[in-house]
Amino acid sequence: MYQKMSLRQEYSLVYGKDLFRKEMSQVWLEHVRKMAGYLEAKRVSECGARSLWWACDGEESFGAWKRMLCRSRWCPVCSGAETKHLWNYLRYRMREVTAAMHTGIRFWRWETTLPYEFRELVTMMDGIDRFTAMSVDWFESYLRRRLKITDSVKLLTMVVPQWWGSKEPYGNGKFDPKHVHCHGVTLCFGWEPEVVSDGSVVRPARVVHFSRRYLEDSGIDVKGFPSRFVEARSSWRRVLESEYGEMQAEDVDVKIRYEEGWDQWNHRSAYMLRSPVKDFSEWADANGEKAVDLEWAREAMSARAGKQRVRYYGALSPKSQSPDSPLMKFIGLRLSNRKQYNREQKRVFCPNGHEMHVVYSVPPDLTVKLIAENEPFIVLLPPWIRVRDSGG
To answer: What DSSP letter does each residue of 196-236 carry, written as one string?
Structure first.
């Protein structure tokens, strides 16, 4: 019998002298000041400087301190925390679904890109949404053609659109810094609902597994050289030209790769879900005072702030994952939604199993004193609070 995963987050108890707090670089804080103002930069600089006293409901009155995050969308630490929460929820959904279907995690990771000549045609809001939908339709159609998957089988796809480059998020000064592309994952199995005719079940519902073979197509590319995924690239080119017009570039770039196992899934999903703040701040830290396009950086980090980062399609869509859907009834699974999951993740319990609650907060100067006095702190290990290295 399948056992559901616990939603409770595992916190640790670490004493003050073993805590490590990430210090914001002055370069990044100066970028934030220019993009969002002095008060926002000050807020980011004080992330983790204040502390909250938490106490439990048990008779032993256990208590400990917990660092306060600033919750600014310009903060790399809080951005990492939000990404971690999103990644945890996605992993929870994938583990629940694959376990209930009695299968391991096998998937195709794929990526679509937009040529430079079309970038001005794609707006940050509706344009990127349209590009995302086009990418999903293209890959699922390609997959069905290559593996001869019928339309009655629902695929399980998730996709994350991105509009900046991880290596040069501010741009390289030569081209438009907007780099629109989509990272997608499609699982190597699908769901086929039952077929009913005249009140009788003609074909029962089933999970359909796909072979990894025959997806890759090899041939001669547009330059006359042997190449992989020739059909995939040519079909993606047709999609782009039907939407944006004739293309001047000789070829387009798409990437498709088969992977399996939770290590591969964890690595891929973490890369897909990273926020623009992470890439922009890391580049600023590494390149110091180099001149950058802050107007583009502000747009990249704020234009789609209210948009959903991950899109789910087919049997992974919210409708298919709802408790009363045929799929959930077939596999006997009831998933917690994002709000329920987050509420459960935020609960903190003492070592004796009693729930803890916030009692009061203290300012930065007292937090420094608490750390120096080696007071106990409740921490959630990487990415935002870490324990010092043994030599630290």
So the answer is: EETTEEEE--EEEE--STT---EEE-TTSSEEESHHHHHHH
Q: Are 380 and 9 in contact (CB under 8 A)?
A: yes
Residues 134 and 171 in one domain: yes
> Does 222 or 345 have the greater pLDDT score?
345
* Sign of the C-alpha dihedral computed for residues 41, 46, 47 and 52 taken in this order: negative
Domain of 126?
A: 76-341
Residues 223 and 354 reside in one and the same domain: no
**Segments of the chain assigned E as strands:** 12-15, 19-20, 51-56, 63-67, 106-113, 156-162, 181-187, 189-192, 195-197, 200-203, 206-209, 218-220, 226-228, 254-260, 311-314, 348-349, 355-362, 376-379, 386-387
224: left (phi over 0), alpha (psi -120 to 50) or beta: left
pLDDT tens-digit readout, 47-61: 988 889 989 877 777
Burial class (CB in 10 A: 0-12, 13-18, 19+), 192: middle
140-179 per-position pLDDT tens digit: 999 999 888 999 999 999 999 999 988 889 886 666 788 9
Residue 310 parent element (H or E):
none
Closest CA to 153 of 144, 166, 162: 144
What single-letter DSSP state applies at residue 148? Answer: T
pLDDT of residue 224 exceeding 70, the answer is no
> For residue range 265-310, what is the model confidence (pLDDT) as tens digits?
999 999 999 989 999 999 998 888 787 889 999 999 988 877 888 9
DSSP state of 154: B
Give the tokens for residue 144: 């069905």
25 near 392, Cβ under 8 Å? Answer: no
133 with 203, same domain?
yes
Element (H or E) spanning 326, and its range? helix 326-331
Tokens of 279: 């890439």
The arithmetic mean of pLDDT across residues 206-226, rounded, is 68
